[in-house]
Amino acid sequence: MSDHQRHTKFLRECIRYDESARRQELMEEIARIQLDARCVRRAVWLMAILAALAAFGLGYGVILVSNFPNNFPQYILNTFGVLAVSWLVCILAFAGLGAVYRWKLDRRREECRQIVTRLLESRLGKTVSTPSQDAGTIASAEQI
Questions:
Q1: Gap between the Cα atoms of 30 and 76, Å rounded
Q2: What is d(CA 51, CA 101) in angstroms, rounded to the nearest whole number?
Q3: Helix or strand (DSSP H, E) at 22
Q4: Exposed, middle or buried: residue 93 (CB in 10 Å: 0-12, 13-18, 19+)?
């Protein structure tokens, strides 16, 4: 499990303590986006395997067939070439779609962080330290 997945899982566990209606919507959106992203990753792997098979088919013709361009049926050559290029285009399209899903998931994770922050503030109160105080504490700790 990657760091991104672990953080998402942690945030999903944290927002379970929230009782707002937005929590359930957010959890459903995250689950749907994760499912869609997983589907896109599988499609990319499938396209990569198919493109590799097409490349191997062309490689077979180049390496093992004597007088390659003339003794190899042209329609097979064209078929392998078209398949390889179309699968590579699909890989690029799916990679772009995967990036869109990652962006959407990042936005939902940010909403989860906001919910968790509000939840912690409501249960524990506001924090008392300011960023300048934290920086001074870090600087004094480094001097020790």
A1: 44
A2: 24
A3: helix 21-64
A4: middle
- For residues 48 and 40, give the distance between their C-alpha atoms in angstroms, rounded to a whole number: 12
* Burial group, residue 39, by CB count within 10 angstroms (0-12, 13-18, 19+): middle
- pTM for the predicted model, two decimal places: 0.69
- Dihedral Cα 39, 5, 104, 43, nearest 10 deg: -20
Let me know: does 108 contact 30? Beta carbons within 8 Å: yes
Counting beta carbons within 10 angstroms of the beta carbon of residue 116, is it exposed (0 to 12), middle (13 to 18) or buried (19 or more)?
middle
**Which residues make Cβ contacts (< 8 Å) with residue 65, sequence separation at least 6?**
71, 72
CB 102 within 8 A of CB 51: no
Over residues 8-38, the pLDDT tens digits come to 888 888 888 888 888 888 889 989 999 999 9
Residue 136 predicted with pLDDT over 90? no
